[in-house]
Amino acid sequence: MYQEIASYNGDFGDAIAEFVDFEPLAVLMERHAEVSIRQGAAIGLLVNFSVALDNSDYVSALKAKEHKEMEIALKMGFLKEFPPIEAAAIRSRDGEQAFSESLRSVYLAYVKEAA
């Protein structure tokens, strides 16, 4: 997933969709999972919401399962250990532009070095 995001210059959307073939929220709920696994799942939430945005309008994407799962992860505190990811999830509430801009920080903090 990280390599694909990097190969698309930080695009978390449609081009990456096929690489999130798991349930990120379910992985995050497994608190015993390794940090790297939880981090990947948290980024998977961002990818899923990015795909929802790519395939609908912003208002519809906010009502979609993908955004609801990010909200659950925020409420449960699952994203706190990854501040840039948590910030991006929060910024998703502020509009598509704000969310897209926040993904750059996630890319630089986690994806670019790992890819």
Main beta-sheet strand count, sense and barrel state: none
* Silhouette: globular
Low-confidence stretches: none
Radius of gyration: 13 Å
Compute the separation of the termini in Å.
9 Å
Alpha plus pi helix count = 7
Mean pLDDT: 92
- Indicate the structural class: mainly alpha
* Strand proportion: under 5%
What is the succession of H and E elements?
HHHHHHH
Summarize the structure in short.
The chain has 115 residues and is mainly α.
Give a structural overview.
Helices cover 67% and strands 0% of the residues. The protein has 115 residues and is mainly alpha-helical. The radius of gyration is 13 Å and the shape is globular. Helix 3 runs antiparallel to helix 7 (96-114).
Secondary structure layout:
Blueprint: H1 2-7, H2 24-29, H3 35-54, H4 58-63, H5 65-75, H6 83-91, H7 96-114
Helix pairs in contact: 3-5, 3-7, 6-7
Task: Please give a handful of descriptors for the protein shown.
0% strand, single chain, 115 residues, 7 helices, 67% helix, globular, mainly alpha
